[in-house]
Amino acid sequence: MIERIPALEHIRFVNSGTEAVMFAIKAARAFTCRPGIARIEGAYHGAYDWAETGQAVSPAMWNDPPQSLAVPAYRGMPPSVGEEVTVIRFNDIADLERRIAAAAPSLACILIDPMPSRAGLIAPEPSFFAAVEAIAKQYGILIVADEVLNLRQSYLGASARYGLHPDLIAAGKIIGGGFPVGAIGGRKEVMRVFASDSGKPLLPQGGTFSANPVSMVAGRVAMEAMTDGAFASLESLGDRIRAGLRREIERHGAAFSVTGAASLFRIHPKGKQPTDFREAYLAPGEAELMGRLSRHFLNCGILLPNGAAACLSTAMTTADGDAVISAFADFLSILEATPTEAGM
Q: Could you tell me how far CA 149 lies from the centroid of its own chain?
C-alpha cells in the first residue's frame, strides 16, 4: 500500500473502518493539540461519536441561512460532542470557508470522503478540494481522507484520483481480502504520534486482533491481485453499467439519475442529478420508491443497496452488468404501467 498510494508513508492496522477513522481523528488531535473536527454533512464515517455527528440530518433540521448542524447520531450522545464538530456542505466553497474560519482555533482536522456514498455518491468539484487544501494550510488543520469505501476507486486510491492531498488516510474493506480490517496511514511526521521508541507514545494504539495474520495475509493477496489492469476492468464495467442505466432513464423519460465512478454507482429517484447531500436526500415518496426498486432487484437475484453505493467486484462479468441494466429497465416499464402510483 505504501508503494502504490502517494499519501501513505507510514501505516498501522486495526480491525475495522470505524477504528481506522477513529484513530485518524485521534492522531490529528495528538499532532495538533486541538480537539475539534470538521466533517461533511450527511456523510458516513463509521460509529465513532465525533465522526457520526452531523450524519443524521433531515430537512426539518435545515435552517435559514442553511447552516449545517452537528446533529447527534443517537439518543443519549453527550451534548459536548456536537460542540467539537463543525459540519460543512460538500462542494460548497463559501460554506467551507465561513465555517472553518469560525472554528479554526479548535480544529484538528477536516474529515472528508472523496466521494461520500451516503451523502449521494457525488463527485467532488476540483475547486472544492483545492479550497479544502488552501484553508487547511492557512489554519494548520490536517486533512483526513476517509477511503474505507473509496480506496477502490483506483490503483492509487480515491484521493489521488481527485487531486486531494491528505495528511492521513483511513482505509478498510478491500484491503482485508474479505476479512475484518482497517488501516491508518499518512505523513511520517504525523504518524510519529503512534511511536514508542522514545517512551510512551503521544497516542497509544493496539488491539487483540489488530494486524492479525489472517487479515494481513488475505489482504496482501487481495491487494496484489488488484493490479492496474484489474482496476481498469472494474472501471470499464462501471462505465458500462452507468451508461446503460442512463440510457434506460432517457428511453423511458423517467425521473431518475445516476451518480458514481469506477466500480461504484448509485441510482437516485430524481430527474436532476444531485450535487450535494440535501439534493440527494430522499423525501418519503422517493424513499418508498427506492425500497420498491431494491425489492425488484432482489427478485431478479441482485442485491441493490438502498440509500448507498452499489459495488462491483472482479468476479462480475459483462453479462452481470447487463443484468443490472435489464433489471432496471424492467422496473421502469412497471412504473410506466402504473403512472399514478409511481407519480410519473
A: 6
Would you write out the chain's pLDDT as a tens digit for each of its 344 residues?
999 999 999 999 999 999 999 999 999 999 999 999 999 999 999 999 999 998 888 888 776 656 788 889 999 999 999 999 999 999 999 999 999 999 999 999 999 999 999 999 999 999 999 999 999 999 999 999 999 999 999 999 999 999 999 999 999 999 999 999 999 999 999 999 999 998 999 999 999 999 999 999 999 999 999 999 999 999 999 999 999 999 999 999 999 999 999 999 999 999 999 999 999 999 999 999 999 999 999 999 999 998 789 999 999 999 999 999 999 999 999 999 986 544 44
Dihedral sign for Cα 10, 15, 21, 23, please. Answer: negative
Break the chain into its structural domains and give their ranges. 10-225, 228-342
Angle between helix 228-252 and helix 318-337 axes, rounded to 10 deg: 20
Architecture, CATH, for domain 228-342? Alpha-Beta Complex (3.90)
Q: Cis link prior to 65 (omega < 30° from 0)? A: yes
In CATH terms, 10-225 corresponds, of 3.40.640.10, 3.30.1360.120, 3.40.50.1000, 3.40.630.30, to: 3.40.640.10
C-alpha distances in Å from residue 13, one per residue of 10, 47, 62, 153: 11, 18, 38, 21
Residue 172 parent element (H or E): strand 168-172
Q: What pairs with residue 257 in β-bridges?
A: 268
Grid coordinates in use for 289?
420508491
DSSP code for 60: G
**pTM tops 0.85:** yes
